[in-house]
Amino acid sequence: MNWGTKLVIAMALFMAFIIALSTKMILSDKDDLVDKDYYEKGLNYDLDYQRKQNMENDKAEPRIELEPKSMKVVFVQPATGTVKFAHSKDRRLDRKFTINTGNSSEAVISLIDIAHGSWHLTFEWKSGDKMYMFKKEVFIQ
Which InterPro entries does the UniProt record give (predicted)? Predict the structure, then answer.
């Protein structure tokens, strides 16, 4: 086999690889890289930025402690709000929980129904008269 034949075989294999990936992409139904509500998120960008700045300025970053079947979130002050669990691979697994610490500054979230893997957490809460936002990526085992 000379070098010309090897070159033609290599090009044919590369073309078959590209065609296979293109076919897989076209036949795929889901596209989890794009949010369905991207327009609303764009409109609320300034509000989200202000909430993140409030968290940094007030040093109000919550402390997250992962336990085998639960997640403990410790806030600086008592808080009420939500935490969104966004799965990095499948939007159907996303969950949203309500947080209310009452008089304490701790909230416990059950992880029993949460699949293992990488998750993007988005905390949105209110402490006193200020709104806060915090994002963190965690790996749940």
Answer: FixH
Tens digit of each residue's pLDDT (9 = 90 or more) over 13-50: 999 999 999 999 888 776 655 667 778 888 888 999 99
- State residue 20 phi and psi, 5-degree precision: -65, -45
Query: Domain segments of the chain: what residues?
Result: 37-140
Helix (H, G, I), strand (E, B) or coil at 126: strand
Bridge partners (DSSP) listed for residue 107: 73
Distance CA 134, CA 62 (A): 8
Beta-carbon contacts of 105 under 8 Å, excluding residues fewer than 6 positions away, are 74, 75, 76, 77, 78, 79
Write the pLDDT tens digit of every residue in 48-106: 999 999 999 999 999 999 988 899 999 999 999 999 999 878 888 889 999 999 888 89
**Residue whose entry in the numeric block shows the structure tokens 């790996």:** 139
Q: How is domain 37-140 classified at the CATH fold level?
A: Immunoglobulin-like (2.60.40)
